[in-house]
Design goal:
mainly alpha, DNA-binding, Arc Repressor Mutant, subunit A, Four Helix Bundle (Hemerythrin (Met), subunit A), homodimer, 3-stranded antiparallel beta sheet, 2 domains, 9 helices
DNA sequence: ATGTACGAAATCGTATACGATCCATCATGC
DNA sequence: GCATGATGGATCGTATACGATTTCGTACAT
């Protein structure tokens, strides 16, 4: 009858809205309101919020309520740093399993990225950029690492604000670095080298943000 | 009146029991039973289980129920691999903040470890080993990474089985590798080098397990 | 004007209740 | 004997209800 439970529906709904930015950080999540909108009672909504809390997407205060995790520059940058580490590992682990078709798709996506550079649209760039990296690490044989990458992205998406959407010139470098990464993968470079390159690519972006925030570059 | 909510009590209770091994993997968590034991209704227990599910400690199947995440050799090893990556990064990031006192404490713990080698007790060794590593990475400036390390340990503790408690000879190597790591830290080696050493140390343990399971060593 | 006390409204936390679903057991037919 | 289908019990999923707690506005005293 019902394919998914109401608590899962609530979880998906809220999760999507936070990721899409429809629910801005700091927004107050009132149980009754959400329940009314979903056409259910508060119990499933509470469960959904508990899950979101465990993932760090919302803050839950006893007897006060839940709010979308607030934008915290520091946390945002820390999450990026974490992601650079995890995604580097994921890419290295997935590399031996990449088929020529996978690489071809990744190259095609990167060409699309290159085209967006002339008429830059941050949202589209981010979207394609995610697709590019996902293509490289998606068949990582360690599901645990893959899960962490996905969670990391969810957090970043939830916290993304206009102030971080674009660092001038970074997009051009990014596309070029993608080329380098693809070449490494095509030549079957050792795992360690791939990991270093993938992480460095992410760290470069992180450092661009850090520099914009007047902070020293990442130590790793 | 009530310091913590019942759902948090339930969460803590179950979390502790799983970590301590009192609840073995595969154990069926029946809402009503747990609720009765806690002296509360099922609603808070459900919330607690949702949180545990989000952390990967329990499996939750719709209309069927929750079970403690089952022992899965593959998942166990994957979690170790993940931890080697995260903990390496955490150690590298924490290294510049280590005080001589911190290093002294770590050395003392490693000496305790060395002493246990003569009359080997796997449980005590594991406990001290955790203390040693925690001393090195505990003041990692990236709370997100630190959180992942803690969660990784919780998962490993929850899944630990007798079959993985001990790989012959590994403990001796481990203590020696600790010495090497301490020396690196004392001389203020670059972050990259520390990360590699910390990760390699973990990867060696992982590979010992993999070898025992007749599998090839980790690629990273 | 500022701070405090109080009361009302909003919201949370959880017990209870009951329908929905699943699983095990047993009966039935082949 | 084995497959198939019915039945009862166990368990889950969630609506509802109500007490507990916080928050906010208002009145009052300083």
């Amino acid at each position: 009858m019902m394919a998914t439970s109401k608590s899962e529906q609530a979880y998906t709904l809220l999760s999507d809205r936070i990721a899409s930015g429809a629910l801005v950080p700091g927004y107050r999540l009132v149980l009754g309101t959400i329940a009314a909108e979903l056409g259910c009672s508060v119990v499933p909504v509470r469960e959904a919020i508990r899950k979101l809390e465990a993932e760090g997407l919302v803050l839950f205060e006893r007897n006060v309520g839940a709010t979308v995790a607030s934008v915290d520059t520091e946390l945002y940058l820390h999450t990026m740093q974490t992601l650079s580490v995890i995604e580097g590992a994921a890419t290295a682990l997935a590399a031996p399993l990449l088929t020529p078709e996978d690489l071809g798709r990744a190259r095609a996506i990167n060409e699309s990225l290159r085209q967006t550079l002339t008429d830059f649209d941050p949202r589209r760039f981010t979207e394609l950029n995610n697709q590019f990296h996902a293509a490289l690490y998606e068949n990582c044989p360690n599901p645990h690492i893959l899960d962490l990458v996905h969670r990391g992205w969810a957090r970043l998406a939830a916290m993304r604000t206009s102030s971080f959407d674009h660092v001038p010139g970074r997009a051009h470098h990014s596309v070029a670095e993608h080329d380098g990464l693809l070449d490494l993968l095509a030549t079957g470079a050792p795992a360690e080298e791939i990991e270093r390159a993938a992480r460095q690519h992410r760290t470069n972006t992180l450092n661009a943000y850090l520099a914009a925030a007047g902070q020293p570059p990442s130590a790793i």
